[in-house]
Amino acid sequence: EIVLTQSPGTLSLSPGERATLSCRASQTISSSYLAWYQQKPGQAPRLLIYRASSRATGIPDRFSGGGSGTDFTLTVSRLEPEDFAVYYCQNYGDSRYTFGQGTKLEIK
Amino acid sequence: QVQLVESGGGLVKSGGSLKLSCAASGFTFSDYYMSWVRQAPGKGLEWVSYISSSGRTIHYADSVKGRFTISRDNAKNSLDLQMYSLTGEDTAVYYCARDSTSWNFDYWGQGTLVTVSS
């Protein structure tokens, strides 16, 4: 079973700064099956990035994804106040979906 | 626009059963795989089950296998999750989600809360 480990657990930054979130897989995974979500309190998750680097519909270009193999990143180039939330990575493989434990992006 | 609306959540005693439903609209339901994803209070996301567009292929997370049954009615644009032998570990918000063709979840419902009491 593939395990996704996200780091850091919490990231404290200020608006305007750059955020880099990490997702590490316990074994090599296909970039085609790696996605990122944003979740705000009391809301359902929202798809941000799919296939590791493709932005979902309506997602601002300050969000970008990258990586391959076992190491993937989500970058927010310049944080806006509405970007402070919890972020999850997700993989599909062996007929199951797996999520990372999440990174909380909080205002410093 | 795509809408997914869950219903059926509530308070149930440990060992009991509950059936969740998801009403889909705004897209051709029969073209898409569908999933249930849950989130325990204050915790992360956990995939529960998915069902293929035809209903012929079904998979479950190990944590619910043998206790939960996913089904769909393409004529009614609806997705169900029948849950049996519930325990406190099943307490969560349950989301209905559309599986995109890229094996991720491109649309989510607002969720329905299931609380299992002892």
Q: Could you report the average pLDDT of chain B, rounded to the nearest whole number?
A: 97
Order of helices and strands of chain B: EEEEEEEEEEE
Contiguous helical run count of chain B:
0
Total helices of chain A: the number is: 0
User: Main beta sheet of chain A: strand number and arrangement?
Assistant: 7 strands, mixed
Q: Tell me the total number of β-strands of chain B.
A: 11
Helix content of chain B: under 10%
Could you tell me the number of beta strands of chain A? Answer: 11
Label the overall shape of chain B.
globular
Summarize the largest interface: chains and residue counts.
Answer: A-B, 25 and 20 residues
CA(first)-CA(last) distance of chain A: 36 Å
Largest sheet of chain B: 7 strands, mixed
Q: Which spans of chain A of ≥5 residues are poorly predicted at pLDDT below 50?
A: none
User: What structural class results from the helix and strand content of chain B?
Assistant: mainly beta
- The radius of gyration over CA of chain A amounts to 13 Å
Please state the oligomeric state of the protein chains shown. Answer: heterodimer
| Whole-number mean pLDDT of chain A | 97
Approximately what portion of the residues of chain B adopt beta-strand conformation?
A: over 45%
Radius of gyration of chain B: 13 Å
Structural class of chain A: mainly beta
Question: Can you tell me about this structure?
Answer:
The complex is a heterodimer of chains A (108) and B (118). With 108 residues, chain A is mostly beta strands. Chain A has strands at 4-7, 10-13, 19-25, 34-39, 46-50, 54-55, 63-68, 71-76, 86-93, 96-99, 103-107. In chain A, 0% of the residues lie in helices and 53% in strands. In chain A, the strands form 2 sheets. In chain A, strands 2, 4, 5, 6, 9, 10 and 11 form a 7-stranded mixed sheet that branches. Chain A has a 4-stranded antiparallel sheet with strand order 1-3-8-7, with no helix packed on it. Chain A is globular and about 40 Å long. In chain B, 0% of the residues lie in helices and 53% in strands. Chain B contains no helices and 11 strands. At the A-B interface, β4, β5, β9 and β10 of A face β5 and β10 of B.
